[in-house]
Amino acid sequence: SDKYECALDLMRRLPPQNVEENLSKLLDIVDADLGDDLLSAIDQPLKVRRCKQTGKDYLACDYNRDGDSYRSPWSNEYDPELPDGATPNATLRKLEVQANEAFDTYREMYYEGGVSSVYTFEIEDKFAVVVLIKKVGEGARRMKGAWDSIHVFEVQERGRNAHYKLTSTVMLYMITNKPELGHFNLSGSLTRQAEQDCPVDDQSAHVINIGRMVEDMEIKMRNSLQEVYFGKTKDIVNDLRSAGSIKEGKEQADIQKELVGKLMLRGNSQ
Amino acid sequence: MTEFSVDEKVHIAASFLLESPPGEVNDVFNDIRTLIGDDDALQAGILTSLEDHNTEQLITVALPESETEVIISKFGQLEGGRFADPRSKQSFAFDHMRLVRYTTWNRSGNMPYPTLRYMHLDFAYKWCIFRAAIDNEVQAYVSDHYPHGVTTVHGSGSKVTIVIVDNKYNPSNYWYVLFFVRVRSITSQWNGRWRAVWEVEKGGSQLKGSAKVQVHYYEEGNVQLNSTKDFELDISSEQDEKKAATSIVKAIEKAEKEYQMAINENYTELSENTFKELRRALPYTRNKVDWHKIFNYKVGNSIVNK
User: Fold this and answer.
1) In this complex, which of A188, A239, A245 lies closest to B222 when CB atoms are compared?
2) Confidence band of B288 (pLDDT split at 50, 70, 90)
């Protein structure tokens, strides 16, 4: 567990630009068991695959992987073929189908493109729902971007209610190459969590509850990403170097302070 | 699955050190140390990586008998692992290993500063008027544009190399020990570093340089900026050392300022265009999604169509 924490800490420090390469190196230095835990704990950019049976795109990650094969949420088949590959039970598969349809629309409305996939699987007395979305930008104006959403739900049904535990990670990559700028790479991910109890009255409830939680979470995270990427990191860059003269800046600040002081005195004496 | 030997694992782990974000090499080292679990092998295999890290990342050192800090870089490397500080006319031996701590029970939690094992005060480094003239101009420039900047100017033959670095570590990033429990302050976690290296020949008309900016933000996530740019500027060829120094530093200031402006403009463009194109703030309906509608329409239709 100590090693596990250190591995996670390490991945939080190494450049997200190289997450796949670094994860691969990390797996080389830890034992197989820890390696498996890390593979499911550390998020990597999602890969797009084409479903052989339906011709639709889907996203590949550790949650729809069995060995070296990946399961398509559209056909429920593995590629490369795996006759005994793990699939969700009938109830969960039905939920999976509904969720994929619903999120397909959600994705179109917010992302106007991209690929989405939803996977379900049992965990003892609960079940998990994983909602994935990937959008890659056009690359206009020499600026490339990619957004990967990974929402992992743990759902516990309790009578006519359900308890939803959500852990969400959004990976955002932004790369610009321009002569006056050189090579600019702003990449990484943010993770947030949420928990909620919702009623489960009918068939549609899980999809709708999960849908709402994902939507609210993505709205929150989109704001956080904006603040951190284009606010905080930019502030730090401008803290490292001052475009204007520091001396002149200080002189102006001193003059302003003096003025404010004089105004306040005048205000007090009137 | 191929099983790697301890030495091979150390080699892999050492490559992680090179990618440590500004001010976090100690943290990365501690992680690697736990993962490898073999201190002897680690110590043996890690030295070269630490040396590379320090010279590449322009680690700074405070020398006694000198008012300003000096930068550790390959430009100031001397025989036998020693480094030169042309400004104070000293050379010193630097223990790269000191950058990382072996004991976890250390009270002072601040970002580990490289310490010197010993130091010689003999004058072992050649200096020239050109280098000194540039050094004066660059120092004034750096103190006026880099709030925590350090600069070292090296001269070798007729070539002068200007090295500049500015670090900002989040001040509340402390490790401290409380009753044998390692506790970390979790307020706002980020670090940044700006590096610039410029090269010019005495009497030359070309100024070559490169700038590297890194920022690491890791509060509930891991976001890193890596921005690099190479420069090739034409400058007027001057024989008089003082005039040359002034014109060189002016050119550097102009180029670095334009680079900083370009970075800021790019931030604005990314935020207003590229980011929006990835995901809208709201659908075109200007309202959040109606999930009941989606379920009834989309899902209902699929069931019917099947």
Assistant:
1) A188
2) very high
pTM: 0.89
Residue-averaged pLDDT of chain A: 94
A113-118: long-range contacts at Cβ-Cβ below 8 A with a sequence spacing of 24 or more? A114/A147, A115/A48, A115/A57, A115/A58, A115/A59, A116/A59, A117/A58, A117/A59, A117/A64, A117/A73, A118/A73
Chain B residues whose CB is inside 8 A of the A18 CB are: 19
- Dist CA A69 CA A46 (whole Å): 15
User: From B24, which residue of chain A is nearest by alpha-carbon distance?
Assistant: A13
**What part of B 54-83 touches A (C-beta under 8 Å)?**
none
Q: How confident is the model at residue B62 (pLDDT cuts 50, 70, 90)?
A: confident
Q: Given the structure tokens 């030169």, which residue do they identify?
A: B84
Question: Which 109-148 residues of chain A touch chain B by CB within 8 A?
Answer: 109-112, 135, 137-138, 140-141, 143-147
User: From CA A109, how far away is CA B286, in angstroms rounded?
Assistant: 10
CA distance A214 to B143: 49
Matching residue, tokens 């994705």: A107
CA trace torsion B14, B20, B23, B27 (10° rounding): -60
Q: Token pair 């992987």 is at which residue?
A: A65
Q: What is the pLDDT of residues B144-197, one digit of tens each?
A: 999 999 999 998 878 899 999 999 988 554 444 444 444 444 557 899 999 999
Q: Quick check: A122 pLDDT over 90?
A: yes
**If DSSP codes are grouped into helix, strand and coil, which group holds residue B167?**
strand
Judge: A188–B264 Cβ closer than 8 Å, yes or no: no
**Using the beta-carbon criterion (under 8 Å), do B292 and A204 form an inter-chain contact?**
yes
Cα nearest neighbour of B257 on chain A: A243
Q: Name which of B75, B71, B60, B57 is nearest B214 in CA terms.
A: B57
Separation of alpha carbons B262 and A239, rounded Å: 16
Omega of the bond leading into A80 within 30 degrees of 0 (cis): yes
